[in-house]
């Protein structure tokens, strides 16, 4: 099993670093200066200079790689481009070359011949593929859950029905496009307990609230439910959140939709409960981390 990222580490990065080191040396930078610019050791620069690092000719001869190396060599040598800017430019090129059918995807399929015959091979390398999109959502959700799990005092915000932090894909249409915690997050003897890794399609209630808000114009991709207290709504409002009340005794989707239409900028939705209905607050945000951060601000 070999990942495309291994092709990047083993083939692409040594080649690009070698080419860049050569460009910078040609522009009269010392070995020490080249090492500083590239963030590598002087001994590594020496290896590049003496040809002791294997270069992938197909990568080195790619016109896009040559053009970028030349541009970065000029910019770095003149101090017009920072190492961070150069890193970003290289990252962008890597993602382009990983796209289905492009250079890094070809090298990957040659290293793993089974991919060439697999119906989803192109989607594997597509940065915007469903697989990668889903994994990004799950990764963000895990980070958000980690923030809540380690937040001192979060158990005091968990309602009797439990909390759930959810996040959805960019084109989410139903609960299967929303990831959450199976079984919800509970307070077990004063400890925030997340019973399982997040999955898609396991959240019903919080997912429906998020989806309803999005359908009516909310710019949110994640949400969490916490216990309702008027003081919490006030505190979130003081932190520049826009709050809107909705009625959960009827159709939730319609009620949430009406609340968003009345307050399009709302990032806090709440209902004050009723017969057999626990009052709750829903905090919405761009991603799971930002939602978790908003909740932590209440502690």
From TrEMBL:
GO molecular function ontology, one term from the record: DNA binding
InterPro entries xref list: Aldolase_II/adducin_N_sf, Cro/C1-type_HTH, Lambda_DNA-bd_dom_sf, ThiN
Native source organism of the sequence: Natrinema salaciae
Superkingdom of the organism of origin: Archaea
Location of the HTH cro/C1-type domain: 27-48
The protein's name: HTH cro/C1-type domain-containing protein
PROSITE patterns for the chain: HTH_CROC1
Entry-linked PANTHER family: HTH CRO_C1-TYPE DOMAIN-CONTAINING PROTEIN (PTHR40730:SF5), TRANSCRIPTIONAL REGULATOR PROTEIN-LIKE PROTEIN (PTHR40730)
């Amino acid at each position: 099993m070999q990942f495309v990222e291994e092709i990047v580490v083993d083939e692409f990065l040594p080649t690009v670093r070698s080419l860049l080191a050569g460009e910078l040396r040609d522009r009269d930078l010392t070995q020490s200066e080249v090492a500083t610019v590239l963030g590598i050791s002087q001994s590594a620069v020496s290896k590049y200079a003496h040809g002791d690092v294997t270069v992938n000719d197909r990568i080195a001869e790619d016109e896009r790689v040559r053009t970028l190396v030349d541009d970065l060599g000029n910019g770095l040598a003149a101090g017009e481009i920072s190492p961070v800017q150069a890193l970003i430019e290289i990252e962008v090129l890597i993602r382009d070359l990983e796209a289905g059918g492009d250079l890094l995807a070809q090298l990957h399929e040659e290293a793993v011949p089974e991919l060439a015959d697999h119906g989803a091979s192109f989607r594997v390398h597509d940065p915007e593929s469903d697989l990668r999109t889903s994994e990004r959502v799950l990764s963000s959700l895990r980070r958000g859950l980690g923030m809540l799990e380690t937040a001192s005092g979060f158990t005091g915000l968990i309602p009797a029905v439990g909390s759930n932090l959810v996040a959805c894909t960019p084109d989410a249409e139903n609960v299967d496009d929303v990831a959450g915690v199976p079984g919800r997050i509970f307070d077990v003897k004063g400890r925030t307990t997340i019973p399982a890794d997040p999955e898609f399609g396991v959240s019903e209630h919080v997912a429906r609230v998020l989806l309803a808000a999005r359908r009516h114009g909310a710019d949110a991709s994640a949400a969490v439910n916490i216990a309702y207290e008027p003081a919490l709504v006030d505190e979130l409002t003081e932190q520049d959140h826009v709050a809107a009340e909705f009625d959960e005794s009827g159709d939730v989707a319609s009620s949430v939709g009406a609340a968003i239409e009345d307050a399009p900028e709302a990032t806090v939705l709440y209902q004050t409960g009723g017969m057999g209905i626990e009052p709750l607050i829903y905090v919405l945000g761009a991603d799971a981390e930002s939602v978790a951060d908003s909740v932590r601000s209440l502690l």
